[in-house]
Amino acid sequence: MASSSGTSSGSSTLVLQNSGSEEELQALMDQRKRKRMISNRESARRSRMRKQKHLDDLVSQVATLRKENQQILTSVNITTQQYLNVESENSVLRAQVEELSHRLDSLNEIIDFLNANNTSNGVYGSSSSGGSFMEPVNSFFNNSLNMAFLNQPIMASASDMLQY
Questions:
Q1: What residue spans carry the Low complexity bias annotation (predicted)?
Q2: Chain segment 134-159, per-residue pLDDT in tens
Q3: No. of H helices and E strands in the chain?
Q4: What's this model's pTM, rounded to 2 decimal places?
């Protein structure tokens, strides 16, 4: 800004040059500011993209983990059911072992009784009362309560009795 008087023409050129420098400086600062704004916008855009990619990765990971979790739950349920089935079968087998043990004990008692009676009556069967050694056997078979044992098959071996 030049003054209206002619005496300061040298200083007015300086002011005009200063003014031009200030304008250039201002323009340079504006240009840097625009560059920084563009750079910041680009950086923010990249940051949003990274954030979105991270979010997408997390969503994908959640889906994968849910699928794995469902598979594990299914496997656990199947295993639990198999365990319950085996446990039930075990209970039935234990009850059968117990029943067969009692039946075997009863049969062994009968054999012991018959052997004791055979020994006391002699091998070929005459006793002092004149009866046969088969009389206890016949009385056993004639008793209807004992017939229940005869109707059921015995399927136990020594190895079955030793395994628990």
A1: 1-13
A2: 565 556 555 655 555 555 555 555 55
A3: 4, 0
A4: 0.45
